[in-house]
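Structure tokens please, single chain.
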Amino acid sequence: MKKTIFLILMLLAGVGQTHARSNDATPIVALETTYGRITLKLYPETGKHRDNFLKLVNQGFYNGVLFHRVIANFMIQAGDPKSKTASTNATLGAGNVGYTIPAEFVYPQYYHKRGALAAAREGDKRNPLKASSGSQFYIVQGRVYTNDELNEMQKANEEKVYAKLFQEISKSKQAQIDKFKAENNVAKLDATRDTILNEVRTKMINTSSYLFTAQQRKDYTTIGGTPHLDGNYTVFGEVIEGLDVVEKISKAQTAENNRPIEDIVVIKAEIIK
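Here you go.
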């Protein structure tokens, strides 16, 4: 019975359907789901992700996919092509379209506030350049953070940036370090260490990538989000209507693999502007 109803919905979704193309730099896309409509705005600064998303919408790719991964107070994820025909107990998330999209980090302008639209991807070990999935996306639900929590997160980010800079600068001077070690020249080793530390401090002063902006703090302490994902996944749009639908989906009962027990379907995705 459920499959019959779904097929009817899919047929109705296709009646009179035209795949509109948007010439707008900031197009609007609507996702009609079994829980209601989610309306998305795509950012012009992340053009590769925007254009790919629009291409897939025009192709009808997202019609019939499931929200296959749902985690309360975190996010809802869709876009696995295998989810269209998956059996009830199938584990999803590995499906793809055969290509990835280069990361487009526009940070801190765009970040993981509640309602952010971002691209899923494989982990850093297999994907050190943080390239995005060609089709899978997620919408942030998240939670509200306190300023103390953000301060702790910022401190941890600062330590990561410091360690990365130290490693990079030390590597650039490795030949000198090896030479001075071989000569047992302690004075020059100490001087090289001091030079590295001074360069790291200078670069730390000139970078703010680990700092939360005032707007980020405002959003994360009021509407919420997932700040720990910032700078690691490409944010390429946001929900402008239907946050209540996102919240409803995020609260769906799930199995151990975070797949909703009752299928939540993207009935139709279309460009409306």
